[in-house]
From TrEMBL:
It comes from Lates calcarifer. GO terms for biological process: DNA replication initiation; double-strand break repair via break-induced replication; mitotic DNA replication preinitiation complex assembly. It is found in: Nucleus. This is CDC45 cell division cycle 45 homolog (S. cerevisiae). Transmembrane segments: none annotated. GO terms for cellular component: DNA replication preinitiation complex.
Amino acid sequence: MFISDIRKEFYEVVANQRVALLVSSDIDALCACKILQALFHCDQVQYTLVPVTGWQDLGTAFLEHKEQFRYFVLINCGANVDLLEMLQPDDDSIFFICDTHRPVDVVNVYNDTQIKLLIKQDDDLGKTLLRREILFDYEQYEYHGTSAAMMFFELAWVLTKDTKDMLWWAIIGLTDQWVHDKITHMKYVTDIATMQRHVSRHNHRNEDEENSLSIDCMRISFEYDLRLTLYQHWTLYESICNSCYTSCSFKLWTLNGQKKLQEFLADMGLPLKQVRQKFNSMDMTIKENLRDVIEEASNKYGMKDIRIQTFGVHFGFKNRFLASDMVHATAALLESTEKDESDSDNFIKALDSLSRSNLDRLHSGIELAKKKLIAIQQTVASCICTNLILSQGPFLYCYLMEGTPDVKLFSKPMALTLLCKYLLKAFVHSTRNKRCKLLPLIMAAPKDVEKGTVIVVGITPESETSDKKNFFGRAFEKASESTSSRTLHDNFDTSIIELKTEDRSKFLDALITLLS
């Protein structure tokens, strides 16, 4: 059932209990977790934190903890399946589910005793579920609702326990949905406005307390900033080359695109020496009105929306981060393939990087994120230059072969999804075929060479106005059933699956038939 009073029906219920927190591996979930942990510390609520990477993990985590715990909080997992059917819990287990995955399974909506949904109902069809044909349509598509971190921030606010750190985590949770393309532009702008009201409230509240900018203070500000990834922690040149927005607009994988970029830089009157050195070391005079200079030149080159509404933070004097810097850094730590560390090691590191007491960890995440962005950029260039994107009728398809540089990085769901979005945008910019511009993209990459599996992800067509509703989850299920392909539907996002490498072609053929 949907909970209407999150304070009374959730927080006051668990406040005197021991709680198991089952947290999905995405940035919004990590941020929601940080907020809830801070509240629990504040009220001395005992909890155990268990990271879960997929349905199998969730099942195992539940089995291991069901004897000691009655109350389970699930963050960004559990809403879109019949949870009781899946976990088979005893009658006294209670599940509080704060999950952005839609559609919510109808059985969860109608269970009044064990399932408590911490979900905004306006995000969902809620009441209209009763009509059969609506129900069918509703369950066909996957999409995302309000950020889990925002939901828990709202709880903190209702409890009058919200801090600036919690507010910053809620902003990062929302920004994660934008960076990983989970919500519509309209939803993003609406939620940004909500966060902006909280930011002004906090800044107003703190004006009296800290007029001096002390070493350990924290200031959040609304920014109309550049869509140049990590530019304040990189060189301007590298950021322009490795940001999806600029790279696709210039078509940087072509010689002509490289030439255009040089003209663009000359147009802004920025000396190459300046754009090729660390942003921090650039002349103050250049940095002061850099955003305006770049915006003006970008307009001339057809990049009309190089700026985006977002937030930045200052920690003390010298550390400044944009919300998107945080998302990229944390994601790179969460899916790090550098050392053979376990998922839960990476989870803890990523969680740490969100605390302002751990700036070293955050900086190491930023370095990893740069490597990842360069790898994505180079992979996009090589896929387009070697025509690896095939039109399969109802969709585009691209397969990354074993042995491709950086292929290990793309065995991870967030990295592959980001590559997929980026590749589709680049392809749409570079193809002359009108029909292809409207197609969704399916991408496959090696997952586990020993087991002979690939990871497959499907994304919706590239468009600014897209409703971000993804139909691949249901299609993957049907294609797998009709061909008895050996697939694993373990990801909380149904549009990401694992597949036996040798079943790839029959699975694809079935998809083509199904979607034609």
